[in-house]
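User: I'm putting together notes for a lab meeting next week and I want to include a structural view of one of the chains we've been expressing. I don't have a solved structure, so I'd like a prediction I can at least talk through. The sequence is below, exactly as it appears in our construct file.
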Amino acid sequence: MTLSFEGLSKKYKDTIALDSFSAELSEGVYGLLGPNGAGKSTLMNIISGNISASSGHCLWNGQNITVLGKKFFNVLGYMPQQQNLYHNFTARQFLWYMAALKGLTRRQASEKIEFLLGLLHLQDNAHKKLGAFSGGMRQRILIAQSLLNDPQLLILDEPTVGLDPMERVSIRNFISEISVNKIVIFATHVVSDIENIAKEIIFLKQGRLILKDTPHDILRSMSSKAWQCCIPAKEIEEIQRNYVVTNVVSQMDGTLCVTIMSDFCPQDFGWTTTVPTLESVYLYIFNEVNNANLCR
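Assistant: Thanks for the context. Below is the predicted structure for the 296-residue chain, given as structure tokens.
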């Protein structure tokens, strides 16, 4: 089972939303990371058939998805970020409606709906209207509809947005549990959502693939770029101007313990190497500070 991209590009007039994206995915969870405008939504919309690529190819098991047509969409599950639900539908009515759109038989739909309501802990609220659902419950019903056709490829667009910490962990663990025998693309800009469940992380910046690797190998490749030091509080603004500051902790003596990401060790204050986090790598990749121009 593979999902491949060959030079995939999308251009809107003078804007390049996706620029020659090439990658190959197999079974497992892939974190799709990048700020707004990075190209995440464009990539997902091309896969889901909402828009067409300007050039390049998207292949499912070696075959172009535009040629496969319905055969491809039968194995695709998609959870959009927007919670534009039918507020007057109950949870069960909504799932029946989505099952009909996906072409499930009444027997298939009945069995799958009851299974998913139980799996996502929505059975006790299945009779309630979606307009009365909390943010976490709405996210769960959107995940449920994406799983109705038992997809082999699952696309999740910001599935934990707006959730409290307990709900985030619950959704994250559930995604990890159902990822067996599936390719799961988990798009987010919150690193903690995927750092412990992703097989690989894909960093997109301005439509381009910046990095694709396992969390372990990403951290290993960045291990020489994380620095830590306690500095006088008055120096923090200068440090923030020149470096990617990833953490600041006030000390009892009035100093600040600062962690930065930089290609080179700063000369002042006695900086030492420290262990990077995926969040600090994210800040390093997407920050505009140009460390290469700093004094070595």
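A couple of points you could mention at the meeting. Residues 223-286 form a domain with the Alpha-Beta Plaits fold (CATH 3.30.70). The two ends are 47 Å apart (CA to CA).

User: Perfect, that's what I needed.
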